[in-house]
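INTERNAL AUDIT FORM
Audit reference: QA-55
Scope: verify that the stored structure record matches its stored sequence.
Auditor: D.O.
Record contents follow.
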Amino acid sequence: MKVNENSTAWNLCQMQELGVVWKFIKVHWETEELNIYYRKNGYPKKVWKDNEGMPFGIYLLEANVDNIKDLENIFDEEVGEVLWFSTEEERDKVFNEEKELIEKDNAKLKT
């Protein structure tokens, strides 16, 4: 599954550590067109309609880079991990907690 570059928060959160860059992005089931994918592939309506009541997600992307300037081009890669939530508030809470941890790690890397 490719990442939709029009997803909410496409460039919000990044971390570079030992040549590995992590990026978290907020997504929605329908914006990513997963409802279409799962409907066309014969999944039951409870799945393709709204991911069984959990339409709000976070993608975790990982890439190895030698140069931080390459960031814009490396995230056309596959999604590594996905977390799904039933409400936007739940998703945003976890997203913001992860963002704070990454910012702290980034601050350590700069010193």
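Auditor finding: record pair retrieved intact. Confidence is low (pLDDT under 50) at residues 1-17.
Action required: none
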